[in-house]
Amino acid sequence: MECVILAAGEGTRMRPLTADRPKVMLPLVNRPMLEHLVCAVRDAGITAIVLVVGYGEREVRAWFGDGSRFGVSIRYVTQRHQLGTGDALMATKGLTTGRFLMLNGDMIVESDDLATLCRTDAPCMGVHESDHPQDYGVVTLDGDLITGLEEKSKHPRSTWINAGVYLFDQEIYARTEGISLSGRGEYELTDALEGYIREGRLRAHPLGTWMDVGSPWDLLDANATLLAGMGEVREGVVEEGVVVHGKLVLGKNSVVKAGTYIEGDCIIGEGCTVGPHAYLRGSTTIGDSCHIGHSVEVKNSIIFAETKVPHFNYLGDSVVGSHCNFGAGTKVANLRHDHGIVKVNGRSTGRKKFGAIIGDHVLFGINCSVNVGSVIGSYSLIGPHSLVEGTLQDRTVIR
User: Fold this and answer.
1) Of 10, 3, 56, 1, which Cα lies nearest the Cα of 214?
2) How confident is the prediction along the chain (399 residues), in pLDDT tens digits per residue?
């Protein structure tokens, strides 16, 4: 069998983190999101993969190559214009034979679920129960038969959602060729599935583990889940006087200096310096070549490669891009005074604790304060003693 993975989208909801990289290359536990999916497909017994690429395709091709590094064979097809999932599927026509899996590239799924799905008859859709189904395509069921599919209904008729996991055979191409542009200006795969539903042929396969990674705060949940499933490996140096509770994954050529207190689960990449007297709280991921310095506290955050948080800083429940630098005393708040749900650009995160989304190459002066739910665009310069609230566009300068 082959597996088609849709990895062409920019991920506008992930801005500014996707300004210089496609969404599928955002890191989770220091590996691109897409790598976790490729490995799950491989572990399900499928080694022939077709990646549909587009935005940022050079980075995807450079990382995955022909797939041999990951024990699979990868072919690529470019979706020139992002015109929907139906258009992405049609780009793979002639590259699959017989039955094949098709997966959205922005999710976490278990290999056991994929292996079980492969043993069913096509067509079949992976479904998952959600406590906020209004944000997804809602599926109605009669046993394992799908009887209805509606996109992002304000009044969902079910808690089951379309998980973006499919088992198809070659018939799907003919059905997709016949669909028209939707009101959103896209060729929607769901339009092709309506025929199967009317004929009583589309079956549902409940997924035991599934996580959507469509928004920046979803990265924190997925990161915590993946960290919890990792084994402990320490390839760097942990000096005397360091206290570690819970799981620590420490990369090569990294040093954790004396006086540092770590509450796992945490992962520290290669070539990092942490401490002295730093405080890392779970579930935190620190990318390669980072510096987390004296009296710095980091909690439940993802810090991309080559970022420096060196002196008397606090960073909680946040996602920070690469090549950033925090001036001494700069802090990111992560809790509203009224303990209400944090919103970002008017969108609910569903979280009472969420800090900021900070793009790449952001430089802070000393003693800056970043309020909850803030978004700071890439290449921004934040002057000393500044208060940051709301959303700053890329290359904003605050003096």
Assistant:
1) 10
2) 899 999 998 888 999 999 989 999 999 999 999 999 999 999 999 999 999 999 999 999 999 999 999 999 999 999 988 788 898 999 999 999 999 999 999 999 999 999 999 999 999 999 999 888 888 889 999 999 999 988 777 788 889 999 999 999 999 999 998 887 777 777 888 888 988 999 999 999 999 989 999 899 999 999 999 999 999 999 999 999 999 998 999 999 999 999 999 998 999 999 999 999 999 998 999 999 999 999 999 999 999 999 999 999 999 999 999 999 999 999 999 999 999 999 999 999 999 999 999 999 999 999 999 999 999 999 999 999 999 999 999 999 999
Token pair, residue 238, equals: 């942990």
Separation CA 89–CA 3 (nearest Å)? 11
311, 323, 337, 339: the active-site residue = 311
Q: Phi-psi category of 218—alpha, beta or left, where left has phi over 0 and alpha has psi -120 to 50?
A: alpha
| Helices and strands: H and E segment counts in the chain | 7, 39
**Structure-token pair, residue 51:** 């990646």
State the total domains in the chain. 2
Q: 1: exposed, middle or buried (C-beta count within 10 Å: 0-12, 13-18, 19+)?
A: middle
Residues 103 and 58 in one domain: yes
pTM: predicted TM-score of the whole model, two decimal places:
0.93
If asked whether residues 233 and 138 sit together in one domain, one would say: no
Query: Could you give the maximum distance between any two Cα atoms of the chain, in Å?
Result: 68
- Token readout for 333 is 């708040």
Is 220 inside any structural domain? no
Q: How far is CA 166 from the centre of its chain?
A: 20
Q: Mark whether 178 and 232 lie in a shared domain.
A: no
Is the domain of 327 the same as that of 192? Answer: no
Q: Domain boundary residue among 187, 214, 241?
A: 214
Instruction: Give me the domain span that covers residue 203.
Output: 2-214
Query: Tell me, what CATH number does 319's domain have?
Result: 2.160.10.10
- Whether 337 is a known active-site residue: answer no
